[in-house]
Design brief:
alpha+beta; Nuclear Transport Factor 2, Chain: A; four-stranded antiparallel β-sheet; 2 helices; 30% helix; globular
């Protein structure tokens, strides 16, 4: 019989919790600059398109990031988080469907 020790379960739970946070963008901390220094949404849309996310479906503020849901040129769905000051991609997750 295979037994997993409690310490291993702790690591599994910790990893799972961290993975869920990264995947959803919850708690994303992209910048410490005030909103007065952020790029506008049109500029962020262009930066996302330049990064390969051609069709923007939604663009919202989430935490201190811009959150973009988009389609790539290959028609993959993407959740993308961008730094609102630089327009750089902080994280992205692609989906087949």
């Amino acid at each position: 019989m295979f037994v997993i020790r409690p310490i291993v379960w702790g690591f599994v739970l910790l990893f799972t919790a961290q993975s869920a946070t990264v995947a959803t963008g919850a708690g994303q901390d992209c910048t410490r600059y005030p909103r007065s220094e952020w790029l506008d949404k049109d500029t962020i849309s262009r930066r996302a398109a330049d990064a390969g996310y051609k069709t923007i479906v939604t663009l919202d503020v989430e935490g201190t990031c811009y959150h973009v849901r988009a389609l790539t040129s290959s028609r993959l769905q993407a959740d993308v988080y961008l730094d609102p000051v630089t327009g750089d991609v902080v994280s992205a997750v692609l989906f087949d469907e």
